[in-house]
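Regression check, guanosine-5'-triphosphate case 599:
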Amino acid sequence: ISRDKIRNFSIVAHIDHGKSTLADRLIQVTGGLTEREMTAQVLDSMDIERERGITIKAQTVRLDYTAEDGETYILNLMDTPGHVDFTYEVSRCLNACEGSLLVVDASQGVEAQTLANVYQAIDANHEIVPILNKIDLPAAEPERVKEQIEDVIGIDASDAVEMSAKTGLGVPDVLEAIIKRLPPPKDGDENAPLKASLVDAYYDPYMGVVVIVRIMDGVMKKKQRVKMLKTGASYELDRVGYFRPGRLQDADALYPGEVGFLTASIKEVADCAVGDTITDVKRPCEGALPGFKEVQPVVFCGLFPVDAADFDDLRNAMGKLRLNDASFSWEMESSAALGFGFRCGFLGLLHLEIIQERLSREFDLDLIATAPSVVYEMEMRDGSMIELHNPADMPDVMQIMEIREPWISSTIMTPDEYLGGILKLCQERRGLQTDLSYVGTRAMVKYELPLNEVVFDFYDRLKSISKGYASFDYQVKEHRAEDLVKMSILVNEEPVDALSMLVHRSRAEGRGRAMCERLKDLIPRHQFKIPIQAAIGGKVIARETIAAMRKDVTAKCYGGDASRKRKLLDKQKAGKKRMRQFGKVEIPQEAFVAALKMD
Ligand code: GTP
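Current build output:
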């Protein structure tokens, strides 16, 4: 097939604007799958993704489309992750194609991630076709949203395609727009040495690691010996071919402009650096493809088994997750309070939540997660620099010259009636406003914020203040020196290392008081009085006391039958499993998470 009949494109959209539904429609209409096979959304394959309706790993699919001009085209749809945590994966994916469909929900309009994603597509020099989805909804306002796309994003939306991915209306127009308005792959030389981009990789239990590649120059053949420039590893290719809906189709070779897969004896996804350049061992290409970037975790937390006997199970489970997610990293950690566990690094908060959820759901593990923490840079008096991933490891303050914390630049879009509350929230979190503008009745406000103030419950607060209407997007910007102190929490005079945190001095007292108050409610009464204190160094800055009480859970089933009593006791016993012993005090697992939510 000639190159001018190939279209490589991605769909960029804000979460929930209908990207996956549109992808399904394109697969269905081009005859890829039957209705029944469509029920499981093909591109979003992981359970949690499906449940949350978010796309995490980039997937791709190759479709044959016979156009109105009678010609058959090959459409390679690259599905991009829709969430800020996965920005780097988005950009790799975009670099593998020439155009983007910009999907905007016609009843919602442009949102924060619409912007973030479309700017990435523009950076990747993409041709962009704006698409207004959900025009079946009574609340759809296509004309207004077109204006908004022009005003806010600055691209021509006069011939935006109006459609409904739900009813199928307008889907043929989308297909025609893809072949008429998006360009074919730019020149690539079939006779040049092989140069291919490693777009993504995933672990398949039957085939091992499957790598998604985009060929730039040369030909990639079965049995060819290739090497990866960054990692230096070399492999003999087992299979090459295309992604068809729900299956892989073998081919003898992949040519310039094509997107496809390869398998070799690659052990884990971590061996494949996304963005790496793949070339021929004997006849290597000159220079790597530009823009390779190491992904760095930005949020860390400790994960510990509730039951110490589960430690090996936890280790095995994490190994399995890592097979499929190279951006998840960890090292062993031991905590005086929590025993043996792992210090884990994540790309962001959503990433953290997903991994935690998968560990407890897929591997049935009861875990305690410590407070999420960002990476602090410590400039030491002896001239060295330390990266601190865990507040519990904080060196002696006398040795520290300066502590720097990561700041983000963020964009928030919201209906203007919620703006006041949102500004207040950002202000409370030490935010610095850098811009405020309006598009109709929607406000777009930009803030610089310390990531530390965002990692706990910023999303939740933003959503509740705006009744779910505000959207948020951020990028980590730089580390800045701030007046940060380590706050310890003492329960019954014993510091609980898992609850210690770095806070800005100006926020320490408020945070300390809030923590003590919450812990007071979260820790059940014991038979003795329990003081709860927040302290900086030796100085107590907040204190609460849990009064003593004898806890008799069966008291309230006055004389009820014995089986009812037993049930209650069993229930309490099960509850015990989720408790940890701190000195003489038992703290329920939930207390750790709940204690860290701030108002
Ligand atoms: P992410 O995977 O998180 O990026 O979301 P998405 O953009 O893929 O959104 P998805 O396709 O999952 O659609 C979100 C919701 O909107 C789903 O409940 C869809 O059924 C619904 N939806 C999608 N397209 C339409 C449409 O044209 N009309 C209506 N009424 N609903 C739609």
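Comparison notes: The mean pLDDT is 85. The pocket of guanosine-5'-triphosphate is lined by residues 13, 15-21, 53-55, 82, 133-134, 136-137, 164-166 (CB under 6 Å). No diff flagged against the previous build.
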